[in-house]
C-alpha cells in the first residue's frame, strides 16, 4: 500500500470540489508549479479519493496529483478529475425494524399534469464539470460570477471541451481546439473573450464591440448578462473558422 496524504477540516462545496486550509509553502510538496496568481491554491486529484463526511478528512495519493496554482493565502481547492473515483465514508445508524403496514383503499386520482421543465443555465452539483472549467468557475470574482457561470454553461451545451489555464497570458483557452479564450478582468468586473478569426468575417450581434486582436483573433469584453447571447453567437461562429 502506497503513501497517502490526509487533509483535515475539508469541506465539500460541490461535486468533486473541496475547500481546505494549507499554507502555500506546504502545497509545493505536491510538485512544481509556475502559476502563482490570486489568493487560492488549486490541486487536481487524479487518484481514488476517500472523504469522510463525519470527520471532514480527505485522503488521496500524493503521487497522483497535479498542482495547478499556488495562491497567496492558506486556502486551497481540491478538484477531482473524475467523480467515479470519489468514495465517501458516512457513519450510518442501524436500520430500524419495519412494522407491518395495513393495506388501505386508495381512491383513484387523475394523473398530474406535467409542466414543461424550467431551463436553468447554472451548473448543477450532479453535472460532471471538467477540472479546467472548475478552476475558471472558482476564480470568478463574486460580482461577475453569475454571468460567468451562465456563459460557460451555454457554451458547454454547444461544445464538449475543457478550459485550460495558461499562466503566461492569464487566459483560459478552450481545448482541444482553441477557437475561443476567456480572461477574467477583476479590475473592470468583466470578461475578455477572444474568438478565432478577423472581425470582418463575423456577424457581430448588438451590444458587442468586436475589435482585432493578435495572431488572427478578434476580441471583445462582456460585463452584463444581456451580452451573453451575443458572446455565445460569436463563439459558435469562431468554431467554424
SSE inventory with pairings:
Elements: E1 5-7, E2 11-14, E3 17-21, H1 24-27, E4 41-45, E5 49-52, E6 57-60, E7 65-69, E8 75-80, E9 86-89, H2 131-139, H3 142-158, E10 162-166, E11 171-175, E12 180-185, E13 190-196, E14 211-212, E15 217-222, H4 228-238
Helix pairs in contact: 3-4
CATH class of the largest domain: Alpha Beta
Integer count of domains? 2
Order of helices and strands: EEEHEEEEEEHHEEEEEEH
Structural class computed from helices and strand pairing: alpha+beta
Strand sequence of the main sheet, in spatial order?
A: 10-11-12-13-15-14
Oligomeric state of the chains in view: single chain
Stated plainly, the CATH topology of the largest domain is called: Aspartate Aminotransferase, domain 1
Question: Count of DSSP helices?
Answer: 4
Explain what this protein looks like in three dimensions.
The protein has about 240 residues and is of the alpha+beta class. The chain folds into two domains: about 5-90, no CATH class; about 130-240, Alpha-Beta Complex (Aspartate Aminotransferase, domain 1), CATH 3.90.1150.20. It contains four helices and 15 strands. The chain has helices spanning about 25, 130-140, 140-160, 230-240, and strands at about 5, 10-15, 15-20, 40-45, 50, 55-60, 65-70, 75-80, 85-90, 160-165, 170-175, 180-185, 190-195, 210, 215-220. Strands 10-11-12-13-15-14 form a six-stranded antiparallel beta sheet. Helix 3 packs across helix 4 (about 230-240). The longest helix has 17 residues, at about 140-160. The chain is elongated and about 55 Å long. It starts with a strand and ends with a helix. About 25% of the residues are buried. Mean pLDDT is about 85; it is low at about 90-95 and about 120-125.
Amino acid at each position: 500500500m502506497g503513501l497517502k496524504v490526509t487533509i483535515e477540516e475539508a469541506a465539500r462545496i460541490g461535486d468533486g470540489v473541496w475547500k481546505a486550509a494549507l499554507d502555500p509553502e506546504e502545497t509545493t510538496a505536491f510538485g512544481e508549479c509556475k502559476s502563482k496568481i490570486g489568493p487560492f491554491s488549486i490541486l487536481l486529484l487524479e487518484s481514488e479519493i476517500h472523504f469522510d463526511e463525519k470527520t471532514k478528512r480527505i485522503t488521496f495519493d500524493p503521487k497522483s496529483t497535479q498542482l495547478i496554482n499556488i495562491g497567496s493565502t492558506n486556502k486551497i481547492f481540491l478538484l477531482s478529475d473524475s467523480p467515479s473515483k470519489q468514495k465517501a465514508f458516512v457513519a450510518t445508524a442501524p436500520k430500524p425494524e419495519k412494522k407491518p403496514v395495513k393495506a388501505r383503499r386508495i381512491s383513484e386520482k387523475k394523473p398530474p399534469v406535467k409542466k414543461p421543465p424550467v431551463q436553468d443555465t447554472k451548473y448543477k452539483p450532479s453535472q460532471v464539470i471538467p477540472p479546467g472549467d472548475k478552476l475558471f468557475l472558482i476564480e470568478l470574482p463574486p460580482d461577475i460570477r453569475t454571468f460567468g457561470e451562465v456563459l460557460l454553461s451555454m457554451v458547454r451545451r454547444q461544445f464538449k471541451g475543457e478550459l485550460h489555464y495558461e499562466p503566461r497570458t492569464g487566459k483560459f483557452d478552450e481545448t482541444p481546439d482553441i477557437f475561443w479564450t476567456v480572461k477574467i478582468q477583476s479590475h473592470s468586473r468583466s470578461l475578455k473573450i477572444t474568438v478565432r478569426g478577423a472581425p470582418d468575417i463575423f456577424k457581430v450581434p448588438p451590444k458587442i464591440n468586436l475589435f482585432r486582436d493578435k495572431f488572427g483573433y478578434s476580441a471583445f469584453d462582456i460585463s452584463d448578462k444581456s451580452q451573453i447571447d451575443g458572446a455565445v453567437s460569436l463563439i459558435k461562429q469562431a468554431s467554424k473558422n
